[in-house]
Amino acid sequence: MELASFRDELNARDGEAAVWLVYREDAITLQGERGPLVLQRAFWTRGQAYAYAERLHRERPWQHLHAFRVTARADALDVAAWDAAFEMAFDRPGAPNAVRVSPTAVAHALGRR
Questions:
Q1: Are 93 and 34 in contact (CB under 8 A)?
Q2: Residues of the chain where predicted confidence (pLDDT) is lower than 70
Q3: C-alpha 5: how far from its chain's center?
Q4: 0.90 cut: is pTM over it?
Q5: Angle 92-51-65 from CA coordinates, rounded to 5°
Q6: How does DSSP classify residue 31?
């Protein structure tokens, strides 16, 4: 989704909305180390995000997935990054408490199919 469309969607939701982000932990790491998180998809509902992460984890049990929630605001699309709070880890304890994500990355992740 383009940033302008994201702004329109947020304005239709009274200017702000919760968005759930599903990250995959990068598997290319040294044994015992945590890899960087890679944003996979974003969703307007927690249920969609969890269902997607659970499905991916069933298909690829070696991949570790994490869900985060961010409050997206139409009047804050020009900031460098938002803080997204940790919600759930799928088969991997100890995820970071928060991640920083750009509004552009959230918009693009919402548009992925």
A1: no
A2: 27-35, 91-95, 113
A3: 18
A4: no
A5: 25
A6: T
Q: Tokens 């890679």 label which residue?
A: 38
Neighbours of 21 (CB within 10 A): 25
How is the chain split into domains, by residue range? 3-111
**Helix or strand holding residue 56 (H, E):** helix 46-59
Q: Which two tokens stand for residue 107?
A: 């918009």
pLDDT tens digits, one per residue of 20-51:
999 998 766 555 566 688 999 999 999 999 99
Which segments of the chain are extended strands (E)? 16-25, 37-43, 65-73, 82-90, 98-101
Find where tokens 């940790």 sit.
Answer: 86
